[in-house]
């Protein structure tokens, strides 16, 4: 990790692709009609990393907001994800084309398999399509999301390119120490989704006490904890004041004791599905 101003803090994805801004902006459950405005607010605040997905239904609006902004395309890191239901080789290639067409981009910075769906289809076939996309030069980095170490090991054993990123649910109630350690061991950057657990950790007594003591909000303390652990985060908000608040986390540092106290809040509690059993495919 290299430190600097808030916009230049990056994590190096070692296996393919390059630097990823460590703080980004997520648009899961951002309604289509609000996505353009929210993304524009994030841009104006200084976010230069947007995390979207075909599943979120708002790629068109994300692309439009980026094109309309004063920021050049090459100065924004954009991630999208392969939707469930398109894991077969040819379907995956078509889904990637569709994401690019909806965003109206000629390349993506990062494309991820959204869910492994191990009970639906062998994701090795899907990853082979991801490798093909990467070799075409139309995506700068490829990775996975919600992969357990056993899923990653299967990819290592059967395919060539090691994922740049594994995007997993991680926050103070689900610290994911095992998966994060496995990622790190293989040079895979960890991206932590739902970094404030969709708001659930914001009333936690440990976190609120630290926040009060150091004069920051519970969201800022939680996001700062993730950043100091080395994870990449992209909190979602449609509320401009919160978008600003979540970005203002580079002017303070948590002590080792505060870091440890927040990590000790772990309850292995998910807000989302278990990747080993999740098998949802849209009709
Ligand atoms: N790969 C995957 O499977 C996966 C799954 C889930 C999410 N993600 C990614 O991770 C991103 C973030 O996760 P998430 O959207 O699930 O949850 P999150 O960022 O942990 O939390 C978002 C919720 O917290 C609220 N919030 C945001 N900042 C706040 C603040 N400073 N104070 C109080 N409340 C605040 C938001 O409300 P308002 O919007 O009303 O302000 C929203 O309800 C997503 O947008 C998506 O890009 C990926």
Structure in words:
This protein is α/β, with parallel strands linked by helices and 283 residues long. It has ten helices and ten strands. The chain has helices at 32-45, 59-68, 89-103, 123-136, 149-158, 177-185, 205-214, 218-229, 240-247, 256-263; strands spanning 10-12, 19-21, 25-26, 49-51, 77-82, 110-113, 142-145, 165-169, 189-193, 232-233. The strands form two sheets. Strands 3-4-5-6-7-8-9-10 form an eight-stranded parallel sheet. Helix 6 (177-185) links the parallel strand 8 and strand 9. Helix 3 packs across helix 4 (123-136). The longest helix has 15 residues, at 89-103. Mean pLDDT is 95; it is low at 1-5. Bound molecules: NADP nicotinamide-adenine-dinucleotide phosphate. NADP nicotinamide-adenine-dinucleotide phosphate is lined by residues 26-29, 51, 114, 145-146, 167, 193-199, 202, 219, 234-239, 242, 245-246, 272.
* Estimated share of beta-strand residues: 5-15%
Spatial shape: globular
What is the H/E order?
A: EEEHEHEHEHEHEHEHHEHH
> What class would the helix/strand composition place it in?
alpha/beta
Query: Main sheet, how many strands, which sense, barrel?
Result: 8 strands, parallel
């Amino acid at each position: 990790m290299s430190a600097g101003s808030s916009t230049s803090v990056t994590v190096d994805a070692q296996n393919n692709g390059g630097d990823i801004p460590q703080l980004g902006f997520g648009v899961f459950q951002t309604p289509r009609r609000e996505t353009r405005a929210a993304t524009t607010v994030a841009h104006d605040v200084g976010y230069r990393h947007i995390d979207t997905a075909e599943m979120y239904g708002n790629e068109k609006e994300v692309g439009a907001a980026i094109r309309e902004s004063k920021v050049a395309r090459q100065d924004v890191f954009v991630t999208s994800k392969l939707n469930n239901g398109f894991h077969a080789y040819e379907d995956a290639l078509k889904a990637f084309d569709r994401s690019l067409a909806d965003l109206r981009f000629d390349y993506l910075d990062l494309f991820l398999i959204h869910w492994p769906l191990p009970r639906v289809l062998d994701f090795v076939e899907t990853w082979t399509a991801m490798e093909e996309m990467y070799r075409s030069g139309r995506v700068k980095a490829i990775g996975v999301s919600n992969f357990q170490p056993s899923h990653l090991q299967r990819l290592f054993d059967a395919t060539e390119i090691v994922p740049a990123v594994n995007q997993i649910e991680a926050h103070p109630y689900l610290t994911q120490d095992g998966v994060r350690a496995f990622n790190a061991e293989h040079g895979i950057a960890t991206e932590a989704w739902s970094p404030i657990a969709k708001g659930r950790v914001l009333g936690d007594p440990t976190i609120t006490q630290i926040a009060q003591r150091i004069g920051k909000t519970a969201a800022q303390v939680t996001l700062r904890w993730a950043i100091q652990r080395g994870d990449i985060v992209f909190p979602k908000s449609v509320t401009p004041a919160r978008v600003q608040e979540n970005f203002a986390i580079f002017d303070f540092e948590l002590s080792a004791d505060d870091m440890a106290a927040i990590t000790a809040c772990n309850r292995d509690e998910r807000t989302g599905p278990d990747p080993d059993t999740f098998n949802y495919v849209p009709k």
